Fold this protein.
Amino acid sequence: MPDAAAIRQVPVTVSRFLEAGRGRLAIEPVSGTEGLNRPITEAAVNRVGLALTDFFRYFAQHRVQIIGHAENAYLTSLADQTRTQRVRAVLKKGIPCLVFTRNRRVAPAVARLGDEFGVPILRSRLITKHFINAATIVLENLMAPRITMQGTMVDIMGVGVLLEGNPGVGKSETALALVKKGFSLVADDVTKLIKDSAGKIVGSPVGVTRYHMEIRGVGIIHVPSLYGIASVRAEKELELIIGFKRLEHNDDRRWEIDGGYRMRNVLGVNIPSMVLPVAPGREMANIVEAAALDFKLKQLGHDAAKELDLKLMDVMHGRTNGT
């Protein structure tokens, strides 16, 4: 399956922003709920500031608009009619939504304007700077490029590994064996991947199957109930892709033994990948563990294959007797 084929960019609406940030942003709707489907096209947020004085040059109208302590103090200093006029002028610009921070009371006239223009008026308990930081993270996550890939993802000693292969090749069974060894499951069968603001690929489970696994002959199991809360992870950076290929009796392919990697392009990021042959009697969990730990050693500058090659060269040139 081509990596780019499943790339999707889900439109971000005020409703999705509200749902994603309800806990983290301590946010709730006040009025204008008919406009919850309004789009948010920029991850940055904007303090209304000078727009409340009727100065709209350089006004970032496509961003979530914030009324913090200073803006609210300015509004309360105005006469009721002037306050209504100023807020009306802001809402007429077609902003996605307007957020009052510090749990400030929203004047009834302002709340009615939200209903009139179909612009959601929201309120958060957070102080302004904390809300801006958290809201930016929430929006960046919502707007991040994402794909779903067939495969099971595990965390092995800090290395995020995605196991790929045809159905029935043993991905879930291998992941279960790794969990029993003390490692963690990220996602089974289908893994959601996003590219975060730092340019890293982060894997997580699809919501409906989170923390569950399907084991052939057993059925569906809930991993943390059987192996403890430490046996699962909500997300992990993807660092290595391992493909499983069934080894047939007439397969004369010469499998690489030098640990070489091919690069896979995932959302514009090159991820090292390798293929492991699967055959009856092979302990794939041990092999995957060894591959992940060897990858980690190489990241730290220790390459066993190169080290052995240097030793063999020394023996061939008589610099050592090989003992």
